[in-house]
Design goal:
Layout: H1 7-13, H2 23-33, H3 46-52, H4 57-71, H5 75-109, E1 113-118, E2 121-126, E3 135-139, E4 147-159, H6 161-164, E5 170-171, E6 190-191, E7 196-208, H7 214-221, H8 231-261, H9 266-280, H10 285-302, E8 305-307, H11 311-315, E9 321-325, E10 336-342, E11 345-349, E12 360-362, E13 365-366, H12 371-382, E14 387-391, E15 394-398, H13 401-413, H14 420-423, E16 425-430, E17 438-445, E18 448-455, H15 457-463, H16 469-481, E19 485-495, H17 504-508, E20 514-522, H18 527-538, E21 542-547, H19 551-560, E22 569-572, H20 573-587, E23 591-595, H21 599-611, E24 616-620, H22 626-631, E25 634-638, H23 644-649, E26 652-654, H24 659-699, H25 708-719, H26 722-727, H27 750-776, H28 781-802, H29 819-837, H30 839-845, H31 852-881
Parallel strand pairs: 9-21, 9-24, 21-23, 22-23, 24-25, 25-26
Antiparallel strand pairs: 1-2, 1-3, 3-7, 4-5, 4-6, 4-7, 8-26, 10-11, 10-20, 11-12, 12-13, 14-15, 16-17, 17-18, 18-19, 19-20
Length: 882
């Protein structure tokens, strides 16, 4: 048991040096022990995927229809029905197989990383490549990549609730535990795979990986769980069942009327009933939904947004609030010190980015050496855990951007930031966290111990006993009003007889800290974010900025990026606590900026907006953001600076950490829902028209206008490609200017339902009129039936063009934006001509070639659907304009 062993014995047993493993040794151990992965969920077999294509209420009805046609010796009809079912299954199989592959690719994009110490250097590797004997670096916000024996800790707290059930984080140490059978909850010198680092940092040596870890053992005992369906999938599943019931009900109704009232022959009316059921079923709907979702996820991935949960795809379309972090999302996250205040003197810093070049000015002139400024800048260096380095003539940081800015300002003064640890030995440290709002280090130089501290100005002023607090506070507020993020710095000398325990006093409160000054840091807004915020306003989406900055700073930045309106409010954490829950519940829709807020506040903000009925997207990157990310309708984590915990709690990951990407994803989400609605509208248009034609022909004592095989052909040739083509519609230009969709809105809303009735009526009147005309002219039933059959096909082809937009004229929609639709129409026309003129197909579908006059009548009547829809769209556009 490794918890009983000392750190040194663990190093010896695993044959690891302080410099860590070499790359060659790590690869050797990876081959020996295998990847650091848990046993993956059993993949769906090809056979089970194929069988699942037939598990649909609509398919069951078609199979029943095939059995009935077999019983009454209609073998051709049976063959066509089975062919359609098989084709449907083949297309669905390949689309789901492709979608599963796409999901696997997306999962690889979000695979977790681990920081290991190899070859005497820290490097990031895939968590799956961690091996026994690796030295791992643990820090706040990340997950433990494997089971680890700790040998160095600094205020290390780990959430092990997944193993222990205890909500309180475990405090870790490095001493061996000399006891037998110590439960997991009490192994405080160990860190276990999958647990979350809540606070502090540490180092440890990997002792177990993959299935050998505590998590691995638990995982083996857990059975497979089924994928959860999204609300949209559930609604569509219910929709399929309803359509199935309607088709069966109509078939029974037709059979009852035809056999018992109209005294039709059993075989004829049975075929009639089968035709009725088949006409209502939109066979291609399940396939198209899968394709539409896959297309949407691919489009989002192309826009740097990785969807982790399918529910986000549909939810994005109804988002009306985006609660966004400022740093790195709205702003560049390239911090620069532009002002400093030390002992009554204000200094200005020139330069750009992280390049340590640029003059320091005082009163517009180049500043000389100044001991007060040097002490301020040195404190920023010594209270710092970030590295500044150059690579290919470009300057970069490894760590926190704010701390990087402090290193650059010190380097501009001439302080050698690379020698800080040589001259000032670090004895102990209190890492920064959002609750304490400060960081402190205890360092020793020439035998003298000194505490260096940096943090929020109000916190450092609280530690200071300076008589000039009002001066510092006014300067702080002045810098903040200019949009600067202000940090304060302090120093406390402890002398030569200090103890590391002295730094613990800072955790609560202390006195005697010398206030050495302020540094003002700017983080310029991203140009893309500025445009995106303007676009969200046009789209009816409100942007709320949540930041840890001071209220004055936050208000200045919000004004610059135009988040604030005339009636907008700005508040902070103190005001929220003082005024209580009722204030937030009442004013949440007016507040646009929240400053100096805690993670608990962030969660309350989300709840308050949701209680008002809003669909809320929330961005976050830290451990403390996880509750708000989970509570949000759409949790959005950062791909670059985000922690593993934040990503796990989110629905969507931004690869580029850019606010503009959120808005792009919202637009894609809207397009996905609209395309699904267009496809359903297109498919049901045929169903309504065909079923109405069949029922009315029965009541008018007309012969059967279609055969079951012909109806299946209509659904195949006019729906099989066009519905997929509609899933590729790029979305209308004004979709981002429309108000957010009500999340409770049905796919078939009142507007779509009314238009379906109009489509059905147009198809019914036109088709029955031609059918009756041909019979009245003395043409054979087969010729008249061919005319009706051909008319419905072209009705539906023209209907596909109408379905591209609910508002725009068909003549305003260029084919270049959806070339696939043009190709699908061409294929359908060629296929239909084959059924009319190829002898073998004519025999199967019992058709007769139309003459030129009939062709003219067919095309003219079918085009009426375009005229009717153009008039309806014009009325709708005028209604919207009013």
């Amino acid at each position: 048991m490794y918890y009983k062993k000392s750190a040194g014995d663990t190093f010896d047993e695993l044959n690891t040096e302080k410099c860590g493993l070499s790359t060659e040794e790590a690869l050797k151990r990876l081959r020996k022990h295998g990847s650091n992965k848990l046993k993956e969920q059993k993949k769906i077999s090809v056979l089970s995927l194929a069988v699942s294509q037939f598990k649909d209420p609509l398919i069951y009805i078609l199979l029943i229809a095939a059995v009935i046609t077999l019983i009454i010796n209609k073998y051709i009809d049976m063959g066509v029905i089975l062919a359609v079912v098989l084709l449907n299954a083949i297309v669905g199989f390949f689309q789901e197989f492709k979608a599963e592959k796409a999901m696997q690719a997306i999962k690889s994009l979000t695979s977790p990383k681990a920081t290991v110490h190899r070859n005497c250097e820290n490097e990031k590797v895939k968590a799956s490549d961690v091996v026994p004997g690796d030295i791992v670096i643990l820090s706040s916000g990340n997950k433990v990549p494997a089971d680890v024996r700790l040998f160095q800790t600094k205020d290390l707290h780990i959430d092990e609730s997944m193993f222990t059930g205890e909500s309180q984080a475990a405090v870790k140490h490095t001493d061996p535990i000399d006891e037998e059978n110590v439960p997991t909850a009490d192994q405080d010198n160990m860190a276990f795979m999958g647990s979350v680092i809540v606070r502090g940092k540490g180092k440890g040596i990997v002792v177990r990986t993959g299935k050998d870890t505590q998590l691995g053992k638990i995982s083996e005992q857990v059975g497979m769980t089924e994928k959860e369906k999204t609300p949209l999938q559930k609604r569509l599943s219910d929709f399929s069942k309803i359509v199935g019931l309607i088709s069966v009900g109509l078939a029974l109704f037709v059979f009852f009327v035809g056999f018992f009232i109209k005294s039709k022959e059993m075989a004829e009316i049975l075929l009639f009933s089968i035709s009725m059921a088949v006409s209502v079923i939109p066979e291609g709907l399940p396939i198209v939904i899968t394709i539409t979702m896959a297309i949407g996820m691919k489009r989002m991935a192309d826009r740097q947004a990785i969807i982790r949960k399918l529910i986000a795809v549909e939810t994005l379309g109804s988002c009306d609030y985006i609660c966004s972090d400022k740093t790195g999302t709205i702003t560049e996250n390239i911090m620069m010190v532009t002002k400093a205040f030390a002992n009554g003197k204000t200094f200005e810093f020139q330069g750009k980015g992280y390049r340590p070049e640029g003059q320091i000015l005082i009163d517009g002139r180049k500043a000389g050496k100044d001991e007060d400024l040097r002490m301020l800048l040195l404190t920023g260096v010594l209270c710092n855990s970030t590295d500044l380095y150059t690579e290919e003539e470009e300057w970069h940081i490894n760590g926190d951007p704010t701390e990087g800015a402090l290193l650059v300002s010190a380097a501009k003064y001439g302080i050698d930031i690379d020698e800080k640890d040589d001259r000032f030995n670090e004895v102990d440290e209190i890492p920064f966290d959002s609750r304490k709002k400060f960081m402190a280090t205890l360092r020793k130089k020439d035998g003298v111990y000194t505490i260096f501290i940096k943090g929020a100005p109000e916190k450092i002023l609280q530690f200071s006993d300076s008589s000039n607090k009002n001066i510092f506070r006014k300067e702080y507020e002045k810098m903040a009003s200019e949009g600067l993020r202000v940090l304060a710095f302090g120093v406390k000398e402890l002398g030569k007889n200090a103890s590391p325990k002295d730094i613990d006093l800072i955790k609560e409160s202390t006195s005697g800290v010398q206030f050495v000054g302020l540094q003002g840091i700017i983080d310029p807004p991203k140009k893309s974010a500025l445009k995106a915020i303007e676009d969200t306003k046009k789209a009816g989406i409100k942007t709320v900025m949540i930041t840890g900055d001071h209220k004055i700073t936050a208000q200045a930045i919000a004004g610059e990026i135009k988040i604030l309106d005339e009636d907008s409010l700005v508040t902070d954490g103190k005001e929220l606590d003082k005024k209580g829950k009722s204030f937030l519940d009442e004013m949440s829709e007016k507040i646009r900026v929240y400053a100096r807020v805690s993670p608990e506040h962030k969660l309350r903000i989300v709840k308050a907006l949701q209680q008002k009925g809003h669909t809320v997207a929330v961005t976050g990157d830290g451990v403390n953001d996880a509750p708000a990310l989970k509570k949000a309708n759409i949790g959005v984590s950062m791909g670059k600076i985000g922690t593993d915990v934040a990503r796990e709690a989110s629905d969507m990951v931004l690869k580029d950490d850019n606010f503009a990407t959120i808005f792009e994803a919202v637009k894609v989400g809207r397009v996905i829902f609209e395309n699904i609605r267009k496809v359903v509208f297109f498919l049901l248009g045929t169903a309504v028209g065909e079923s109405s034609i069949i029922i009315l022909s029965l009541f008018f004592n007309l012969p059967l206008p279609f055969l079951a095989t012909q109806i299946l052909w209509i659904n195949l040739v006019t729906n099989g490609l066009q519905d997929i083509a509609l899933a590729y519609e790029p979305g209308e230009k004004n979709i981002s200017h429309n108000p957010p969709r009500n999340p409770k809105e049905r796919i078939i809303n009142l507007f779509v339902f009314k238009r379906l009735l109009l489509i059905g009526a147009t198809m019914t009147v036109g088709t029955l009129a031609l059918f009756w005309l041909k019979l009245h002219e003395g043409q054979s039933v087969a010729f008249a039936r061919t005319t009706a059959f051909n008319t419905v096909v072209f009705f539906q082809l023209f209907h596909a063009l109408n379905s591209r937009s609910f508002e725009k004229s068909v003549f305003q929609m260029p084919f270049s934006s959806n070339f696939f639709l043009l190709i699908s129409l061409g294929i359908s026309i060629i296929a239909q001509l084959s059924v009319l003129y190829v002898p073998t197909l004519r025999f199967i579908f019992q058709t007769e070639p139309p003459d030129i006059l009939t062709w003219g009548q067919t095309i003219g009547v079918a085009l009426s659907i375009v005229l009717v829809m153009e008039i309806d769209k014009l009325i709708r556009r005028r209604h919207i304009a009013k």
